[in-house]
Amino acid sequence: MYQNRPYCILNAAMSIDGKIASISGNTELSSSEDWIRVHKLRSEVDGIVVGINTIIKDDPKLRIKYFDRKFGRLHRIIVDSNLKIPLDSKVLTFETNLYPSIIATTENAPQSKIKKIKSIDPNNIRIIKCGNNKRVDLTIMTNKLKNLGINKILLEGGGTLNFSMLKNKLVDELIIAISPVILGGKDAPTLVDGTGFGSLNEFIKFFLIKKQLIGNNLVLWYKIK
User: Please, how many CA atoms are within 13 Å of residue 11, restricted to the half-sphere of its CB?
Assistant: First the structure.
């Protein structure tokens, strides 16, 4: 249950064969109509969660278009275990007064980099330390987000982060937009990568609650069993 953490929706676009990007890194799988749905969803949550690889590869703004928020501000939450985030990333420099950023890292993060990041906008950039291990402890992270008043998050992660959030039972809902293309490639990232689940007892089970054709994307809504 999510009383001690934010309610989490994993949203992603993927190809028919489950790829979220091509081997060259192309991630344009959502139709223009479906992007409107995504931005509406962004306008209804308290934060968007992505991994550091998304920031480094795509440098997204993680903002809202087409819609106005009815409450609070949208937080951009970046999982960055080794604090590799470039100081000129858009999540640190673009409209931080409207979209404050939270960087989740570990106790091992270099203090010098922490100071540099905070100095960009001390009022709208926060760093939270989540565990002593090599990787961010996602359970600690979500507990801290809840304590900061973030009650609903949208996970727009890559395959590794998606797997880790699912493995730690931190996802409540799944929305998948299936693009009518085949990408192929054994090294192309999939919706869920990581080490995988080995037995039936470990499998994460969902049930379908809704389906809709939006543009050329078949969008499926699932909730966890």
Answer: 21
Distance CA 18, CA 177 (A): 10
Positive or negative: CA dihedral 174, 176, 182, 185: negative
DSSP one-letter string for 68-123: --SSS-PEEEEE-TT----TT-HHHHS-TTTS-EEEEE-TTS-HHHHHHHHHH-TT
What tens digit of pLDDT does each residue of 74-132 get? 999 999 999 999 999 999 999 999 999 999 999 999 999 999 999 999 999 999 999 99
- Quick check: 77 and 104 in contact, CB under 8 A? yes
Q: Which two tokens stand for residue 202?
A: 């470990």
Please answer whether residues 115 and 146 qualify as being in contact, where contact means their C-beta atoms are separated by less than 8 angstroms: no
Cα 139 to Cα 104: distance, rounded to the nearest angstrom: 11
**HSE-CB of 178 using CA atoms within 13 angstroms:** 13
Question: First CA to last CA across the chain, in angstroms?
Answer: 11
Q: Is 165 exposed, middle or buried (0-12, 13-18, 19+ CB in 10 A)?
A: buried
Nearest to residue 40, comparing CAs of 21, 67, 18, 63? 67
CA 185 to chain centre: 23
128: helix, strand or coil: strand
Q: Is the dihedral of CA 132, 135, 140, 144 positive or negative?
A: positive
